[in-house]
Amino acid sequence: MASLDLVHIQKSFGPVHILHDVSIALKDGEFLVLVGPSGCGKSTLMNIIAGLEAPTGGALKLDDQDITQVAPAARDISMVFQSYALYPNMTVAQNIQFPLEMRKVDKSTRAERVKGVAKLLQIEHLLDRKPRQLSGGQRQRVAIGRALAREPKLYLFDEPLSNLDAQLRLDMRTEIKKLHQRLKSTIVYVTHDQIEAMTLATRIAVMKGGVVQQLGTPHEVYNRPANTFVAGFMGSPRMNLARAQVVDAAGEIALAFQAGNGDKIVLPLAKQFAYLRPYLGQEVIAGIRPETINLPNASLAQKGLQRTFSAKIEVTEPTGAETLALLNFGGHEFTATLDPDIALSVGRETQFTVDITKLVCFDVKSETLIA
Amino acid sequence: MDKTPVGQVARVALYLILIITAFAFILPVYVMVVNSLKPLDEIRNGNLMALPIDWTIEPWLMAWSKSQIGVQATGLKPYFINSFLLVIPSVILSTLIGAMNGYILTQFTFRFANTLFAAMLFSVFIPFQIVLIPMAKTLGFLGLAGTVKGLIFVNTVYGIGFTTLFFRNYYAAFPNELVRSARMDGAGFFGVLHRILLPNSAPIIVVTVIWQFTNIWNEFLFGASFSDYTSFPLTVALNNLVSASTGVKEYNVHFAGAFIAAIPTLVVYLVSGKYFVRGLMAGSVKG
Prior knowledge:
The complex is a heterodimer.
Chain A: E1 4-13, E2 16-26, E3 31-35, H1 42-50, E4 57-62, E5 65-66, E6 77-80, H2 92-102, H3 107-121, H4 136-149, E7 154-158, H5 166-183, E8 186-191, H6 194-200, E9 203-208, E10 211-216, H7 218-223, H8 228-233, E11 240-249, E12 252-258, E13 264-268, E14 283-288, E15 293-294, E16 306-318, E17 323-329, E18 332-338, E19 349-355, E20 360-363
Helix pairs in contact in A: 2-3, 2-4, 3-4
Chain B: H1 5-36, H2 40-45, H3 58-66, H4 77-107, H5 113-122, H6 128-142, H7 148-172, H8 176-185, H9 189-197, H10 202-218, H11 221-226, H12 234-242, H13 251-281
């Protein structure tokens, strides 16, 4: 267990910049999730931490020791690969003890560790099998077991759940979270799945184009997204983004949405949006989470932060637990997650409420959060 | 199975063709075996295709240990041993070097890796004759001329192009994450090769060993050029036996000798032939 510091990490292949100046400081016991679309540089960053690729600039510190030039094997970091990377010629037990064997750990200690890890992950009955005789979930456990047996300072997980089927993925996700809570280890985890990021992380680094867009707790990243990319990437269905003008409606800040027919739909805001005052008269991008939009008859207490508006229901998508509705709000397309038990009539103009406590605004030019 | 009359006729025709072609392939072997078991008189007076009237294994014994090839009447035996002394180290060395080259060319990214591979691939297309004189110079310089060691050197070097090609293509399809994982687990350069790559290379090792064994065992030109009467491989000895200009042509002994020379490669194919076909396919298609 240890702290990890990434200091101005850069990586380029010739003229192509993969990573631009990534700095992340990770405290002991943190679970950092690197999340982003494919090609955002998250895997490259992980390989740099592992030592499998060298950074073009910057430094890496593990427990305040500079490990930038240290060989992967000498870093005391273990990694769980996306394909599990189990050695097909070795049994499960041999796989788990391979890193110990390479480190010349004596036989009795090795056997003891294998036993301990197998018990922890409930794979004791599989120790004599070859990887090809295991199911996906079992392989996953063995791969984690091999990483655990070394008792390293830092664990790396490279999209470990992406090869599993949906149900198993949920189960293993919980297992990994339990494991982290029990071991209190420092973990860096790469995924492109924002739900995995939200559920597992103590901190999330959202990446795009080799730049960390936002580094924060899942709550911060979800509720105060640093820019429109983070806003759109985190959360499913995506946050609704629409341009609106900041106006003064009887002394109160309000957002005026341009409707298709030339009319303006005004959404008055509350006192805590006073920071929008410098934007009076200008356009901003308003971000509204689908779950903050409801039907007025939903049994929610009116807290003075509900605003009513009217929109046409274009499509409904029932998922069972909730129903997704695509709304036409004066020409803007909004998604709302609604109660599945309420009958909705498609094509009709309907009244909706929106909870504005979670409404966020972004600058039109820089697309960053206005706060 | 097609049970209609037309289908059955087609099937009979198919088997007939297969039997005829199989017969055509087996015929030379039949001629060799049958005539190697006849006394010389029967070959001279009779029919090459006929079975022996007077069965004898004397030609085999002659070819193996009694016929005059070198200075002494030793038969093929010492040269058979020479060939083994030459083939076994050459096959092992060229296979291991090929595996190492394949490992380096696929698992390490460095400049000119593809150029280097192309150059090695090019060596596959160089005819033996072109390297004869430079190789003679090299062997003289190394003091290995006329020895079995010299022949091992020549055959190993000449084989590297092929073995590198085999292993490079096999390892190109080898899961990269396994190698990365092993490196993180603490395996060094040779640790990865020895513990991870080679144990998972059985099909391509079999292909390479068969290929190299057959080629080096049957190799004649280098053997004839770079050896002397103490280090002749079997192919050269067989040639000397067959083309001896004095005395009577003992065809039965020649047939027996040729068959003796073919036995080791035959055994290698029979034992590992199925791996050969499987291995040639491996790497080309995943799965």
